[in-house]
Amino acid sequence: MAATETRLLLLGTVMLFEPVNGYQLRRELVSWQVEDWAHVNPGSIYSGLTTLTKQGNLERHDLVDGTRDVAVYTSTTEGRLEFARLWRSAVETVDVLSPLPFHTAMALMPLVGRESVRDALQARLAATDAKARDQLSQQPPAEAVPPHVRALADLWMGLGQTEREWLVTLIGRVDRGELELQGEESSWMPPSDDPGWQMANDRERYLRLIGGR
Question: Is residue 2 pLDDT above 50, yes or no?
Answer without folding.
Answer: no
